[in-house]
Amino acid sequence: MGTLEELVINVRISIANPSAPSESMFGPGIAKLCDGVRELGSLNAAAKSMGMAYSKAWRIIKDTESTLDIQLLDRDGAHGSQLTEEGNRLLDVYQSISQQLQEDGEALYHKELGTNG
Questions:
Q1: What is the DSSP annotation of 28-90?
Q2: What is the pLDDT, as a whole number, of residue 31?
Q3: Which of 20, 69, 87, 103 could form a disulfide with 83 if both were Cys (CB 3.0 to 4.6 A apart)?
Protein backbone atom coordinates (compact mmCIF):
# COMPACT_ATOMS: atom_id res chain seq x y z
CA MET A 1 0.00 0.00 0.00
CA GLY A 2 1.07 3.56 -0.64
CA THR A 3 1.37 6.47 1.74
CA LEU A 4 -0.38 9.81 2.00
CA GLU A 5 2.89 11.50 1.01
CA GLU A 6 2.72 9.81 -2.40
CA LEU A 7 -0.66 11.32 -3.21
CA VAL A 8 -0.98 14.58 -5.14
CA ILE A 9 -3.41 17.47 -4.89
CA ASN A 10 -5.40 18.35 -7.98
CA VAL A 11 -7.21 21.67 -7.53
CA ARG A 12 -9.90 22.46 -10.08
CA ILE A 13 -11.86 25.67 -10.30
CA SER A 14 -14.64 26.97 -12.48
CA ILE A 15 -16.01 30.38 -13.32
CA ALA A 16 -19.78 30.63 -13.54
CA ASN A 17 -22.47 33.17 -14.29
CA PRO A 18 -24.75 33.05 -11.25
CA SER A 19 -27.67 34.59 -13.14
CA ALA A 20 -27.55 32.11 -16.05
CA PRO A 21 -30.21 29.40 -16.24
CA SER A 22 -27.64 26.92 -17.57
CA GLU A 23 -25.08 25.17 -15.40
CA SER A 24 -22.28 25.47 -18.01
CA MET A 25 -19.09 26.92 -16.54
CA PHE A 26 -15.63 27.93 -17.62
CA GLY A 27 -13.56 25.11 -16.16
CA PRO A 28 -10.53 22.97 -16.94
CA GLY A 29 -11.90 21.48 -20.16
CA ILE A 30 -12.93 24.69 -21.87
CA ALA A 31 -9.78 26.39 -20.59
CA LYS A 32 -7.72 23.68 -22.31
CA LEU A 33 -9.78 24.09 -25.48
CA CYS A 34 -9.32 27.89 -25.45
CA ASP A 35 -5.60 27.50 -24.78
CA GLY A 36 -5.43 25.19 -27.81
CA VAL A 37 -7.15 27.82 -29.96
CA ARG A 38 -4.67 30.41 -28.69
CA GLU A 39 -1.69 28.17 -29.48
CA LEU A 40 -2.90 26.46 -32.67
CA GLY A 41 -4.99 29.20 -34.27
CA SER A 42 -8.16 27.19 -34.84
CA LEU A 43 -10.92 25.48 -32.92
CA ASN A 44 -10.64 22.46 -35.20
CA ALA A 45 -6.92 22.02 -34.46
CA ALA A 46 -7.52 22.53 -30.73
CA ALA A 47 -10.30 19.95 -30.73
CA LYS A 48 -8.18 17.43 -32.63
CA SER A 49 -5.26 17.93 -30.23
CA MET A 50 -7.62 16.95 -27.40
CA GLY A 51 -9.06 13.97 -29.28
CA MET A 52 -12.41 15.73 -29.54
CA ALA A 53 -14.77 16.07 -32.48
CA TYR A 54 -15.02 19.60 -33.88
CA SER A 55 -18.81 19.49 -33.47
CA LYS A 56 -18.44 18.79 -29.75
CA ALA A 57 -15.87 21.57 -29.34
CA TRP A 58 -18.16 23.98 -31.20
CA ARG A 59 -21.10 23.00 -28.95
CA ILE A 60 -18.99 23.49 -25.79
CA ILE A 61 -17.83 26.93 -26.95
CA LYS A 62 -21.36 28.02 -27.89
CA ASP A 63 -22.88 26.73 -24.63
CA THR A 64 -20.21 28.45 -22.55
CA GLU A 65 -20.49 31.72 -24.47
CA SER A 66 -24.26 31.66 -24.02
CA THR A 67 -24.04 30.89 -20.31
CA LEU A 68 -21.32 33.43 -19.52
CA ASP A 69 -22.85 35.98 -21.92
CA ILE A 70 -19.48 36.75 -23.49
CA GLN A 71 -17.93 35.88 -26.83
CA LEU A 72 -14.84 33.72 -26.36
CA LEU A 73 -13.81 33.24 -30.00
CA ASP A 74 -13.62 35.26 -33.19
CA ARG A 75 -14.18 32.84 -36.04
CA ASP A 76 -12.82 33.46 -39.51
CA GLY A 77 -14.15 30.46 -41.42
CA ALA A 78 -11.40 28.59 -43.22
CA HIS A 79 -8.78 30.92 -41.72
CA GLY A 80 -9.25 29.60 -38.19
CA SER A 81 -10.24 31.19 -34.92
CA GLN A 82 -8.70 33.32 -32.24
CA LEU A 83 -9.71 34.27 -28.75
CA THR A 84 -11.49 37.57 -28.31
CA GLU A 85 -10.02 40.15 -25.95
CA GLU A 86 -12.45 38.97 -23.26
CA GLY A 87 -11.65 35.34 -24.06
CA ASN A 88 -7.93 36.01 -23.63
CA ARG A 89 -8.48 37.90 -20.37
CA LEU A 90 -10.73 35.17 -18.96
CA LEU A 91 -8.24 32.44 -19.90
CA ASP A 92 -5.31 34.39 -18.42
CA VAL A 93 -7.17 35.01 -15.15
CA TYR A 94 -8.37 31.40 -14.99
CA GLN A 95 -4.86 30.02 -15.55
CA SER A 96 -3.31 32.42 -13.03
CA ILE A 97 -5.83 31.58 -10.31
CA SER A 98 -5.60 27.85 -11.08
CA GLN A 99 -1.81 27.88 -10.80
CA GLN A 100 -1.85 29.85 -7.54
CA LEU A 101 -4.52 27.63 -5.98
CA GLN A 102 -2.67 24.50 -7.09
CA GLU A 103 0.54 25.72 -5.46
CA ASP A 104 -1.31 26.78 -2.30
CA GLY A 105 -3.16 23.46 -2.17
CA GLU A 106 0.06 21.47 -2.47
CA ALA A 107 1.76 23.52 0.24
CA LEU A 108 -1.22 23.21 2.58
CA TYR A 109 -1.47 19.45 1.97
CA HIS A 110 2.16 18.91 2.88
CA LYS A 111 1.91 21.30 5.84
CA GLU A 112 -1.09 19.38 7.19
CA LEU A 113 0.75 16.07 6.71
CA GLY A 114 3.85 17.49 8.34
CA THR A 115 6.02 16.75 5.27
CA ASN A 116 8.25 18.91 3.10
CA GLY A 117 6.62 17.89 -0.20
A1: HHHHHHHHHHHHHSSHHHHHHHTT--HHHHHHHHHHHHHHHTS--EEE-GGG-EEE-HHHHHH
A2: 98
A3: 87
Buried b (16+ CB within 10 A) or exposed e, 99-117: eeebeeeeeebeeeeeeee
Dihedral pair phi/psi, residue 26, rounded to 5°: -90, 105
Options 1.10.8.60, 3.30.390.10, 3.40.190.10, 1.10.10.10; which CATH number does 25-113 get?
A: 1.10.10.10
Mean pLDDT, the chain, whole residue set: 93
